[in-house]
Input
Amino acid sequence: MKSLGEQGIQPARGRHIRGGVPSDVRDELTVEGALQISINGKPFTVTMQTPGEERALVRGLLFTEGVVTRQDAPIDWQEQRDEAKGHILRLNAQIPGEFIEQDFEGRRSLMATSSCGLCGARDARDIEMTGCPFRLQPGERMAMSHVPAMIAEMAQHQPIFDATGGCHAAAAFTIGGDLLAAMEDIGRHNAADKVIGRLLEERRLEAARCLTVSGRLSYEILTKAHRAGMPFVLAVSALSSLAVEQADRFGMTVIGFTRGDRATVYSHPENVEGA
Output
């Protein structure tokens, strides 16, 4: 069976033009495909994603969107594969009724694209951040000195990006900067869901206190970190205004432009040693 990196890469031929001179080239592209997700046999949504870690993706997605109500929810899986490519085309999550929101069928109506994890939500209330603000444990502060190392560690787990330049990554760390999980996907939100889903499968989500993302930090990623109980979110690139506003409201610390020894703390710098 192909590795996750191999599943996510597809060769392509193109015509490269430099200085007006064309030449044939062979490139590698990030694979993007549709995954039909069902719950207890009922269609829930179709998401565009990079093949691999589909169970982690769906578990993380259902938990971060509040469809699955408990971290320890038991899930039985039925899958349908593309026999030629080995990709999972359809995945049904069989979940006991006491572990899911009963109105899940009305939560999504459209396809979720690889650029927007919230596309397809029927009601704005389905994407609101709810619950209590974070209460950090006494003495629980993240050291600014950990930031470059965490970003560098995430980069070491991006084989698809290294090959194609067209894939996002997310990773989860302890408060001390120890890596717990790292995943890639063509969708930023999918990469975060795969990380959270993997930690749910391994019963290690409570150890995760920091989420890192390889691109920009938008509201949708912040909601996933909030739902997963991670009060620190680091982005290699920029942050959206709503992500910062909601982080400030919920006591979360968000840090952007984490490149080398540079970084910008946008909310609750008092939770970061050295900020």
The chain has a mean pLDDT of 89. The radius of gyration is 19 Å. The CA atoms of residues 158 and 249 lie 32 Å apart.
